[in-house]
């Protein structure tokens, strides 16, 4: 049975792997939406938040460096969800990426809620504060994806080739 500290380390490593994946996904999506200035600006903003989050998680991991992780960190934790979205017939990579972004933010909300509770149980007030801050950023970004999926879809429908062209 892992200790509270080992559980925290496992959770931190998963969160860090997820944020590394999120960084790549956000960069690719922002590049694909470079013509949509406001959407790109919000994606770039969350990209910076994501990189800050990685630093906060790395700081937490250093505090538990003496603990042995009790599980192998998932190399690409959200890929199982990304693959589910990729199988859909949406036709455009950016739409799939935007949907994956929404799914990813929702998973992050769940993960940081667990991390926050685990930090509280272990008496790690620094990590508790960090996870609360990250959680607010993820909730805001999930809401943004929800509100802007239609706009992103419209942007790509406009550029799609009509069937009789
Ligand atoms: Fe995020």
Give a written overview of the molecule.
The chain is elongated. It has a single domain (4-158), classed as Ferritin (Up-down Bundle). Helix 3 runs antiparallel to helix 4 (93-122). The chain is built from 5 helices and no strands. With 165 residues, it is an all-alpha fold. The chain has helices spanning 4-32, 37-63, 79-86, 93-122, 125-159. The mean pLDDT is 85. The termini are far apart. Bound molecules: fe (ii) ion. Fe (ii) ion binds next to helix 2, helix 4 and helix 5.
SSE arrangement, N to C: HHHHH
Evaluate the radius of gyration. Answer: 18 Å
CATH class: Mainly Alpha
- Small-molecule components bound: fe (ii) ion
Oligomerization status of the protein chains: single chain
The rounded distance between the terminal residues' Cα atoms is 62 Å
Beta strand count: 0
Number of helices: 5
Which CATH architecture?
A: Up-down Bundle
Cα shape: elongated
- CATH domain fold name: Ferritin
The largest β sheet comes out as: none
Strand content range = under 5%
Briefly note the structural class of the backbone. Answer: mainly alpha
Mean pLDDT level: 85
Number of domains as seen in the coordinates: 1
CATH superfamily: Ferritin, core subunit, four-helix bundle
Q: Tell me the helix content.
A: over 70%
